[in-house]
Amino acid sequence: MNLEKLELRSFRNYEEAAIEFDPGVNLIVGDNAQGKTNLLEAIAYLGSGKSFRAQKTSEMVRFGADFAEIQGQIFAQERNQILRYLLFPGSRPRQIFRNGARKKSASELSGVLPTVLFCPEDLLILKMGSSQRRRFGDLALCQLRPNYDAALTEYHRILDQKSRILKDRFENPAIAAILPEYNLRLCQVGALLISYRARFYEGLEKSAAKFHSQFSGGVENFRLEYKTVSTVTDPFAPVAKLTEQLLDHLQRHERAELETAQCLTGPHKDDFTVALNGIDLKAYGSQGQTRTSAISLKLAQRELMAREWGEEPVLLLDDVLSELDPGRQDFVLNQIVSGQVFITCCEPGRFTKLGKTIEIKQGNVI
Ligand code: ATP
Ligand code: MG
Protein backbone atom coordinates (compact mmCIF):
# COMPACT_ATOMS: atom_id res chain seq x y z
CA MET A 1 0.00 0.00 0.00
CA ASN A 2 1.01 3.51 -0.69
CA LEU A 3 -0.12 6.92 0.52
CA GLU A 4 -0.13 9.07 -2.62
CA LYS A 5 -1.49 12.33 -1.28
CA LEU A 6 -2.33 13.81 2.12
CA GLU A 7 -4.52 16.85 2.73
CA LEU A 8 -4.70 18.52 6.13
CA ARG A 9 -6.99 21.27 7.32
CA SER A 10 -6.53 22.77 10.81
CA PHE A 11 -4.66 19.69 11.96
CA ARG A 12 -2.21 20.56 14.80
CA ASN A 13 0.00 23.40 13.50
CA TYR A 14 -1.08 22.85 9.86
CA GLU A 15 -3.64 25.39 8.65
CA GLU A 16 -3.96 23.94 5.20
CA ALA A 17 -1.61 21.59 3.40
CA ALA A 18 -1.69 19.21 0.45
CA ILE A 19 1.35 16.99 0.08
CA GLU A 20 2.14 14.41 -2.56
CA PHE A 21 4.41 11.57 -1.58
CA ASP A 22 6.84 9.25 -3.25
CA PRO A 23 6.04 5.50 -3.23
CA GLY A 24 9.55 4.94 -1.82
CA VAL A 25 11.37 7.01 0.79
CA ASN A 26 9.98 10.38 1.91
CA LEU A 27 12.45 12.39 3.92
CA ILE A 28 10.75 15.07 6.00
CA VAL A 29 13.18 17.75 7.12
CA GLY A 30 12.77 20.88 9.22
CA ASP A 31 13.84 22.56 12.43
CA ASN A 32 12.41 21.60 15.82
CA ALA A 33 8.70 22.24 16.43
CA GLN A 34 7.84 22.82 12.74
CA GLY A 35 5.38 19.95 12.36
CA LYS A 36 7.37 16.87 11.32
CA THR A 37 6.03 14.53 14.00
CA ASN A 38 2.57 16.05 13.51
CA LEU A 39 2.73 14.90 9.89
CA LEU A 40 3.61 11.32 10.92
CA GLU A 41 0.82 11.46 13.50
CA ALA A 42 -1.67 12.41 10.77
CA ILE A 43 -0.53 9.49 8.59
CA ALA A 44 -0.68 6.98 11.46
CA TYR A 45 -4.09 8.31 12.52
CA LEU A 46 -5.41 7.98 8.99
CA GLY A 47 -4.34 4.34 8.96
CA SER A 48 -5.45 3.26 12.42
CA GLY A 49 -7.82 5.84 13.86
CA LYS A 50 -5.43 6.08 16.81
CA SER A 51 -2.89 8.71 17.74
CA PHE A 52 0.49 7.68 19.13
CA ARG A 53 0.79 10.93 21.09
CA ALA A 54 -2.60 12.56 21.75
CA GLN A 55 -4.54 11.68 24.90
CA LYS A 56 -7.69 13.22 23.47
CA THR A 57 -8.80 13.53 19.87
CA SER A 58 -9.50 17.23 20.38
CA GLU A 59 -5.78 17.90 20.96
CA MET A 60 -5.22 17.36 17.25
CA VAL A 61 -7.56 20.20 16.24
CA ARG A 62 -5.61 23.38 15.54
CA PHE A 63 -5.98 25.88 18.38
CA GLY A 64 -9.09 28.01 17.75
CA ALA A 65 -10.37 25.98 14.76
CA ASP A 66 -13.92 24.56 14.49
CA PHE A 67 -12.75 21.21 13.17
CA ALA A 68 -9.74 19.40 11.74
CA GLU A 69 -9.67 17.36 8.58
CA ILE A 70 -7.28 14.62 7.50
CA GLN A 71 -7.75 13.16 4.05
CA GLY A 72 -5.55 10.66 2.28
CA GLN A 73 -5.50 9.21 -1.20
CA ILE A 74 -4.21 5.69 -0.94
CA PHE A 75 -3.43 2.96 -3.41
CA ALA A 76 -4.22 -0.27 -1.58
CA GLN A 77 -5.89 -3.60 -2.27
CA GLU A 78 -5.27 -2.90 -5.98
CA ARG A 79 -7.33 0.27 -6.18
CA ASN A 80 -7.45 3.93 -5.24
CA GLN A 81 -9.16 4.72 -1.98
CA ILE A 82 -9.92 7.90 -0.08
CA LEU A 83 -9.92 7.91 3.71
CA ARG A 84 -11.13 10.99 5.52
CA TYR A 85 -11.44 11.98 9.18
CA LEU A 86 -13.16 15.01 10.67
CA LEU A 87 -12.15 15.81 14.23
CA PHE A 88 -13.79 18.31 16.54
CA PRO A 89 -12.77 20.28 19.59
CA GLY A 90 -14.60 19.40 22.82
CA SER A 91 -16.46 16.14 23.04
CA ARG A 92 -18.25 16.02 19.69
CA PRO A 93 -17.46 12.59 18.15
CA ARG A 94 -15.24 12.33 15.10
CA GLN A 95 -16.55 11.44 11.65
CA ILE A 96 -14.98 8.77 9.47
CA PHE A 97 -15.37 8.33 5.72
CA ARG A 98 -14.13 5.75 3.27
CA ASN A 99 -14.55 6.62 -0.41
CA GLY A 100 -17.15 9.20 0.56
CA ALA A 101 -19.30 6.81 2.63
CA ARG A 102 -19.69 7.48 6.33
CA LYS A 103 -18.31 4.68 8.58
CA LYS A 104 -19.23 3.91 12.16
CA SER A 105 -15.81 2.89 13.39
CA ALA A 106 -12.16 2.97 12.38
CA SER A 107 -12.09 -0.82 12.33
CA GLU A 108 -14.02 -0.64 9.05
CA LEU A 109 -10.93 0.93 7.50
CA SER A 110 -8.47 -1.60 8.82
CA GLY A 111 -6.03 -3.04 6.31
CA VAL A 112 -6.19 -0.01 3.99
CA LEU A 113 -3.16 1.79 5.41
CA PRO A 114 -1.39 -0.18 8.14
CA THR A 115 1.63 1.61 9.57
CA VAL A 116 4.61 0.64 11.69
CA LEU A 117 5.98 3.49 13.79
CA PHE A 118 9.47 3.76 15.16
CA CYS A 119 10.17 6.60 17.58
CA PRO A 120 13.20 7.55 19.70
CA GLU A 121 11.91 5.65 22.78
CA ASP A 122 11.87 2.44 20.71
CA LEU A 123 15.62 2.76 20.14
CA LEU A 124 16.27 1.66 23.70
CA ILE A 125 13.91 -1.30 23.84
CA LEU A 126 16.81 -3.76 24.03
CA LYS A 127 18.38 -2.00 27.03
CA MET A 128 15.22 -1.49 29.06
CA GLY A 129 13.29 -3.81 31.37
CA SER A 130 11.61 -6.93 30.03
CA SER A 131 8.12 -5.39 30.07
CA GLN A 132 9.04 -3.11 27.13
CA ARG A 133 10.12 -6.11 25.06
CA ARG A 134 7.00 -8.07 25.98
CA ARG A 135 4.94 -5.08 24.91
CA PHE A 136 6.71 -4.94 21.57
CA GLY A 137 6.19 -8.68 20.98
CA ASP A 138 2.59 -8.65 22.16
CA LEU A 139 1.61 -5.66 20.03
CA ALA A 140 3.13 -7.24 16.94
CA LEU A 141 1.66 -10.69 17.58
CA CYS A 142 -1.81 -9.31 18.35
CA GLN A 143 -1.83 -7.59 14.96
CA LEU A 144 -0.64 -10.72 13.18
CA ARG A 145 -2.73 -13.32 15.03
CA PRO A 146 -6.20 -12.38 16.30
CA ASN A 147 -6.36 -15.71 18.18
CA TYR A 148 -3.24 -14.72 20.09
CA ASP A 149 -4.91 -11.43 20.98
CA ALA A 150 -7.89 -13.33 22.40
CA ALA A 151 -5.66 -15.75 24.34
CA LEU A 152 -3.61 -12.90 25.79
CA THR A 153 -6.73 -11.09 27.00
CA GLU A 154 -7.96 -14.32 28.58
CA TYR A 155 -4.59 -14.94 30.23
CA HIS A 156 -4.53 -11.51 31.84
CA ARG A 157 -8.11 -11.90 33.01
CA ILE A 158 -7.28 -15.17 34.80
CA LEU A 159 -4.06 -13.68 36.16
CA ASP A 160 -5.98 -10.73 37.67
CA GLN A 161 -8.48 -13.06 39.28
CA LYS A 162 -5.73 -15.26 40.67
CA SER A 163 -3.93 -12.22 42.12
CA ARG A 164 -7.11 -11.19 43.85
CA ILE A 165 -7.55 -14.67 45.33
CA LEU A 166 -3.95 -14.68 46.58
CA LYS A 167 -4.57 -11.37 48.34
CA ASP A 168 -8.04 -12.19 49.69
CA ARG A 169 -6.71 -15.45 51.11
CA PHE A 170 -5.23 -13.65 54.12
CA GLU A 171 -8.70 -12.60 55.26
CA ASN A 172 -10.56 -15.59 53.93
CA PRO A 173 -8.32 -18.73 53.95
CA ALA A 174 -11.03 -21.01 52.51
CA ILE A 175 -10.86 -19.18 49.20
CA ALA A 176 -7.48 -20.85 48.45
CA ALA A 177 -9.36 -24.05 47.61
CA ILE A 178 -10.25 -22.66 44.16
CA LEU A 179 -6.63 -21.85 43.28
CA PRO A 180 -5.83 -25.20 41.56
CA GLU A 181 -8.64 -24.60 39.08
CA TYR A 182 -7.24 -21.15 38.22
CA ASN A 183 -3.71 -22.49 37.99
CA LEU A 184 -4.72 -25.17 35.50
CA ARG A 185 -6.53 -22.72 33.24
CA LEU A 186 -3.66 -20.24 33.54
CA CYS A 187 -1.18 -22.89 32.42
CA GLN A 188 -3.38 -24.03 29.54
CA VAL A 189 -3.76 -20.53 28.14
CA GLY A 190 -0.14 -19.72 29.02
CA ALA A 191 1.02 -22.73 27.02
CA LEU A 192 -0.85 -21.40 24.01
CA LEU A 193 0.90 -18.02 24.35
CA ILE A 194 4.29 -19.72 24.51
CA SER A 195 3.49 -21.73 21.42
CA TYR A 196 2.59 -18.58 19.43
CA ARG A 197 5.57 -16.66 20.75
CA ALA A 198 8.09 -19.40 19.88
CA ARG A 199 6.96 -19.33 16.25
CA PHE A 200 6.80 -15.55 16.10
CA TYR A 201 10.29 -15.02 17.52
CA GLU A 202 11.71 -17.64 15.20
CA GLY A 203 10.40 -15.75 12.17
CA LEU A 204 11.40 -12.41 13.68
CA GLU A 205 14.96 -13.57 14.26
CA LYS A 206 15.41 -14.78 10.70
CA SER A 207 14.21 -11.53 9.23
CA ALA A 208 15.95 -9.23 11.74
CA ALA A 209 19.25 -11.07 11.24
CA LYS A 210 19.04 -10.37 7.52
CA PHE A 211 18.38 -6.65 8.06
CA HIS A 212 21.02 -6.38 10.73
CA SER A 213 23.63 -7.96 8.52
CA GLN A 214 22.85 -5.39 5.77
CA PHE A 215 22.88 -2.62 8.37
CA SER A 216 26.31 -3.53 9.70
CA GLY A 217 27.88 -4.29 6.35
CA GLY A 218 27.89 -8.01 7.08
CA VAL A 219 30.06 -7.57 10.18
CA GLU A 220 27.54 -8.38 12.92
CA ASN A 221 25.76 -11.67 13.34
CA PHE A 222 22.37 -11.10 15.01
CA ARG A 223 20.82 -13.81 17.19
CA LEU A 224 17.57 -13.57 19.11
CA GLU A 225 16.61 -15.98 21.84
CA TYR A 226 13.13 -16.34 23.28
CA LYS A 227 13.17 -16.80 27.06
CA THR A 228 10.27 -18.36 28.89
CA VAL A 229 9.55 -20.32 32.07
CA SER A 230 12.60 -22.43 32.98
CA THR A 231 10.84 -25.81 33.09
CA VAL A 232 9.88 -25.45 29.41
CA THR A 233 12.48 -27.50 27.57
CA ASP A 234 11.20 -26.82 24.04
CA PRO A 235 8.72 -23.98 23.41
CA PHE A 236 7.74 -25.66 20.10
CA ALA A 237 6.48 -28.75 21.99
CA PRO A 238 2.75 -29.59 21.83
CA VAL A 239 0.55 -27.34 23.97
CA ALA A 240 -0.37 -30.24 26.31
CA LYS A 241 3.29 -30.83 27.10
CA LEU A 242 3.88 -27.10 27.67
CA THR A 243 0.89 -27.00 30.02
CA GLU A 244 2.40 -29.84 32.07
CA GLN A 245 5.75 -28.09 32.32
CA LEU A 246 4.13 -24.81 33.36
CA LEU A 247 2.14 -26.59 36.06
CA ASP A 248 5.36 -28.20 37.27
CA HIS A 249 7.02 -24.80 37.65
CA LEU A 250 3.96 -23.39 39.38
CA GLN A 251 3.93 -26.21 41.90
CA ARG A 252 7.55 -25.56 42.76
CA HIS A 253 6.73 -21.91 43.46
CA GLU A 254 3.34 -22.42 45.05
CA ARG A 255 4.58 -21.65 48.55
CA ALA A 256 6.36 -18.49 47.50
CA GLU A 257 3.23 -17.34 45.65
CA LEU A 258 1.10 -17.89 48.73
CA GLU A 259 3.57 -16.08 50.96
CA THR A 260 4.09 -13.07 48.71
CA ALA A 261 0.51 -13.04 47.34
CA GLN A 262 1.93 -12.56 43.86
CA CYS A 263 1.79 -14.52 40.61
CA LEU A 264 5.48 -15.31 40.34
CA THR A 265 5.65 -17.77 37.47
CA GLY A 266 4.26 -17.91 33.96
CA PRO A 267 4.70 -16.40 30.50
CA HIS A 268 3.75 -12.94 31.82
CA LYS A 269 7.45 -12.85 32.78
CA ASP A 270 8.73 -13.85 29.31
CA ASP A 271 11.52 -11.96 27.60
CA PHE A 272 13.91 -12.24 24.70
CA THR A 273 17.61 -11.53 24.41
CA VAL A 274 19.67 -10.36 21.47
CA ALA A 275 23.33 -11.20 20.95
CA LEU A 276 25.65 -9.74 18.32
CA ASN A 277 28.51 -12.04 17.35
CA GLY A 278 27.69 -14.07 20.43
CA ILE A 279 27.92 -11.11 22.85
CA ASP A 280 24.85 -10.20 24.87
CA LEU A 281 23.54 -6.83 23.72
CA LYS A 282 21.77 -5.78 26.90
CA ALA A 283 24.94 -6.05 29.00
CA TYR A 284 27.64 -5.16 26.49
CA GLY A 285 26.10 -3.51 23.40
CA SER A 286 27.18 -0.02 22.31
CA GLN A 287 24.59 2.73 21.77
CA GLY A 288 24.81 2.34 18.01
CA GLN A 289 24.45 -1.44 18.17
CA THR A 290 21.48 -1.15 20.50
CA ARG A 291 19.75 1.31 18.19
CA THR A 292 20.43 -0.55 14.97
CA SER A 293 19.31 -3.84 16.47
CA ALA A 294 16.05 -2.21 17.53
CA ILE A 295 15.49 -0.88 13.99
CA SER A 296 16.29 -4.33 12.56
CA LEU A 297 13.58 -5.78 14.82
CA LYS A 298 11.04 -3.21 13.63
CA LEU A 299 11.92 -3.81 9.98
CA ALA A 300 11.52 -7.53 10.65
CA GLN A 301 8.12 -6.97 12.23
CA ARG A 302 7.07 -5.06 9.13
CA GLU A 303 8.33 -7.85 6.88
CA LEU A 304 6.33 -10.48 8.80
CA MET A 305 3.21 -8.33 8.46
CA ALA A 306 3.84 -7.87 4.74
CA ARG A 307 4.23 -11.63 4.28
CA GLU A 308 0.94 -12.19 6.06
CA TRP A 309 -1.09 -9.54 4.24
CA GLY A 310 0.63 -9.42 0.87
CA GLU A 311 1.21 -5.65 1.18
CA GLU A 312 3.95 -3.78 2.98
CA PRO A 313 2.86 -1.56 5.90
CA VAL A 314 3.99 2.05 5.68
CA LEU A 315 7.07 2.60 7.85
CA LEU A 316 7.21 5.79 9.95
CA LEU A 317 10.63 6.62 11.39
CA ASP A 318 10.51 9.60 13.71
CA ASP A 319 13.79 11.25 14.63
CA VAL A 320 15.95 8.16 14.55
CA LEU A 321 18.45 9.25 11.90
CA SER A 322 20.56 11.60 13.99
CA GLU A 323 21.16 8.80 16.48
CA LEU A 324 22.99 6.66 13.92
CA ASP A 325 26.50 6.76 12.52
CA PRO A 326 26.90 7.74 8.81
CA GLY A 327 27.03 4.18 7.47
CA ARG A 328 23.85 3.23 9.27
CA GLN A 329 22.17 6.49 8.22
CA ASP A 330 22.97 5.59 4.65
CA PHE A 331 21.29 2.24 5.16
CA VAL A 332 18.09 3.84 6.45
CA LEU A 333 18.01 6.50 3.71
CA ASN A 334 19.12 4.46 0.76
CA GLN A 335 18.77 0.74 1.36
CA ILE A 336 15.23 0.17 2.64
CA VAL A 337 14.00 -0.52 -0.84
CA SER A 338 10.68 -2.16 -0.14
CA GLY A 339 7.45 -0.31 0.51
CA GLN A 340 6.82 3.27 1.50
CA VAL A 341 8.88 4.93 4.23
CA PHE A 342 8.57 8.31 5.99
CA ILE A 343 11.64 9.58 7.84
CA THR A 344 11.77 12.79 9.83
CA CYS A 345 15.02 14.56 10.51
CA CYS A 346 16.24 17.95 11.74
CA GLU A 347 19.51 18.26 9.91
CA PRO A 348 19.35 20.01 6.54
CA GLY A 349 21.49 18.67 3.73
CA ARG A 350 20.35 15.07 4.11
CA PHE A 351 18.91 13.47 1.03
CA THR A 352 17.76 10.10 -0.19
CA LYS A 353 18.40 8.46 -3.52
CA LEU A 354 15.21 6.44 -3.22
CA GLY A 355 12.52 9.12 -3.11
CA LYS A 356 11.90 12.72 -2.29
CA THR A 357 12.69 15.31 0.37
CA ILE A 358 9.92 17.42 1.85
CA GLU A 359 10.80 20.51 3.84
CA ILE A 360 8.45 21.68 6.60
CA LYS A 361 8.42 25.16 8.12
CA GLN A 362 5.81 26.26 10.66
CA GLY A 363 3.20 23.87 9.40
CA ASN A 364 3.86 24.65 5.73
CA VAL A 365 5.47 22.60 3.02
CA ILE A 366 8.19 24.52 1.23
P1 ATP B 1 11.02 18.16 16.73
O1 ATP B 1 12.10 18.20 15.71
O2 ATP B 1 11.37 18.98 17.92
O3 ATP B 1 10.55 16.80 17.06
P2 ATP B 1 8.63 18.52 15.10
O4 ATP B 1 8.85 19.19 13.78
O5 ATP B 1 8.47 17.06 15.11
O6 ATP B 1 9.80 18.98 16.09
P3 ATP B 1 5.93 18.66 15.99
O7 ATP B 1 5.88 17.88 17.22
O8 ATP B 1 5.42 18.03 14.75
O9 ATP B 1 7.40 19.22 15.79
O10 ATP B 1 5.12 20.03 16.13
C1 ATP B 1 5.12 20.68 17.31
C2 ATP B 1 4.43 22.01 17.16
O11 ATP B 1 3.04 21.85 16.87
C3 ATP B 1 4.55 22.70 18.49
O12 ATP B 1 5.08 23.98 18.30
C4 ATP B 1 3.15 22.72 19.00
O13 ATP B 1 2.87 23.86 19.76
C5 ATP B 1 2.31 22.68 17.73
N1 ATP B 1 0.98 22.13 17.98
C6 ATP B 1 0.69 20.94 18.53
N2 ATP B 1 -0.64 20.76 18.63
C7 ATP B 1 -1.21 21.88 18.12
C8 ATP B 1 -2.56 22.31 17.95
N3 ATP B 1 -3.59 21.55 18.33
N4 ATP B 1 -2.75 23.52 17.38
C9 ATP B 1 -1.70 24.29 17.01
N5 ATP B 1 -0.42 23.94 17.14
C10 ATP B 1 -0.16 22.76 17.71
MG1 MG C 1 9.29 15.55 16.29
Verbal overview:
- The chain has 366 residues and is an alpha/beta fold.
- 40% of the residues lie in helices and 23% in strands.
- It is built from nine helices and 15 strands.
- Strands 2-1-4-5-6-7 form a six-stranded antiparallel sheet, with helices on one face. A six-stranded mixed sheet has the order 8-12-13-3-14-15, sandwiched between helices. Strands 9-10-11 form a three-stranded antiparallel sheet.
- Helix 2 packs across helix 3 (146-168), helix 4 (179-215) crosses helix 5 and helix 4 packs across helix 8 (287-309).
- The longest helix has 37 residues, at 179-215.
- It starts with a strand and ends with a strand.
- The mean pLDDT is 93.
- The site of magnesium ion has 4 residues, from helix 1.
Topology:
Elements: E1 2-11, E2 14-20, E3 25-29, H1 36-48, E4 68-76, E5 79-87, E6 95-98, E7 101-103, E8 115-118, H2 130-144, H3 146-168, H4 179-215, E9 222-227, H5 239-252, H6 254-260, E10 271-276, E11 279-280, H7 281-284, H8 287-309, E12 314-317, H9 326-334, E13 341-345, E14 355-361, E15 364-365
Parallel strand pairs: 3-13, 3-14, 8-12, 12-13
Antiparallel strand pairs: 1-2, 1-4, 4-5, 5-6, 6-7, 9-10, 10-11, 14-15
The structure holds adenosine-5'-triphosphate and magnesium ion (MG).
The site of adenosine-5'-triphosphate has 16 residues, from helix 1.
